[in-house]
Amino acid sequence: MLPLITGAVEDRSARGIAAAVSRLITAGRLPAGERLPTVRAVAGSLGVSPTTVSEAWRNLTLAGAIQTRGRSGTYVSGPAMPRFSRLGRPPVALACDLSTGVPDPALLPDLSDALRRIGDGRWAGSYLDEPVLPELEAVLRERWPFRPERLTVVDGAMDALDRVASAVVRYGDRVLVENPAFPPLLDLLQSLGATVIGVPLDESGMDPSILRDLVVSRPPVALFLQPRAQNPTGVSMTPARAAALARILREAPGLLVVEDDHAGDIAAAPPVSLGRHLPGRTVHVAGFSKSHGPDLRLAALGGPAAIVDQVIDRRHLGPGWSSRLLQGVLLDLLTDEKVAAQVAVARTTYAARRTALLAALRIRGVPAGAADGINLWMPVADQQNAMVALAAHGIAAAPGAPFCVTPLGSDHLRLTAGLVADGYDDLAGALAAAAFPANRGSGARGRGHPHGWR
User: Fold this and answer.
1) How far, in Å, CA of 76 to CA of 65, rounded?
2) Are 376 and 329 part of one and the same domain?
3) What stretches of 288-353 adopt beta strand conformation (E)?
4) Taking all residues of the chain, what is their mean pLDDT, rounded to a whole number?
5) Residues 363 and 64: beta-carbon distance below 8 Å
6) CATH number at residue 156
7) Domain containing 421: what range?
8) Residue 28 belongs to some domain of the structure
9) Do residues 274 and 248 lie in contact, with contact meaning Cβ atoms separated by under 8 Å?
10) Cβ-based neighbour number of residue 104 at 10 Å
11) pLDDT single digits (tens) 317-331
């Protein structure tokens, strides 16, 4: 065991040792349950200090790759179940599936006219053409919340986050995210071996005081956030909060801000971005799945050339570019006044649905939050019991635990309020009874803030 580990280490820094052990675990050469050599044994064999190996072991523990069992020693962890898989659809079809986090298909624009107009081959080009249609890039730049040095189009928001994270995050790097956060992002960062640290939210966005402490104590390499309609809480960052966060982040000049504006045009809040204050250190991702259609599989990515060019260059070794045919569809949709009106109707409809469901819950004393977007974040006394109780009513919800970097003050469920077009009173009654069954007789009275912010 010891020769296997020491033989795999090329870089004898804490990060290099952790990366080497991680590769052995991923390759199956260090199987789950295997006991690792002691810190002193590894340090002696490599000729480094025990402190260096201890830091490597700490990074591996935070990444979930190994676990310490007190005096019994340190062992390789079993493969962790991805957070995203814990959000899977219910095992049986339920009449009201609010676990999905997807837009209402009835509120998406009809693509027929756009497909008819761009299906004449006008966008058929060469492999050597620019990755983004010039006409689309011009429209995107007009919509951008700050002036990006470089802009490209990729295959959806998660593709953008994956490519940016892969370009800037190395094993053991500290990365800040919102708490709660989007589970696939947490899975992505864990797969890269990042040490992920959650920053709590309030009604205006990330908590500045906690962010300042984290930035000053040991500067992270990146901060990932959702500026509008945060998934799962629905929080939208205010311009004043963006300015406050930017002042703090200036104290960490090497930190990159990555913004996932996934809700796009269905967000009720106006566009806001840290890029207005830190344009040379902000990568902004504009998604179109919620507003114009998930099957477009397109998102725009803009920011400093040093980062965006890495993404463009790396794609040459894979897909090369995102379909120019679909880019043409998106261009048509973004410049069609009829489609703009349809998206505006969707935005207003989602807002009305959130308001109606929140009002029905408020009457029953349930302090849920759904400030923007399509999701509702609801505290519950017990996550598992609440999901079982809702399933008995034919209602599916997403568990809150996979969204949490660290535990919040209470359990939560995420529900896709944007899919609820009617029956608010009946749904609210079922949600209230499931959330706090002990208070069923007197009206459910939730404990703590609806977002679990503190």
Assistant:
1) 6
2) no
3) 299-303
4) 90
5) no
6) 3.40.640.10
7) 84-105+339-439
8) yes
9) no
10) 17
11) 999 999 998 999 999
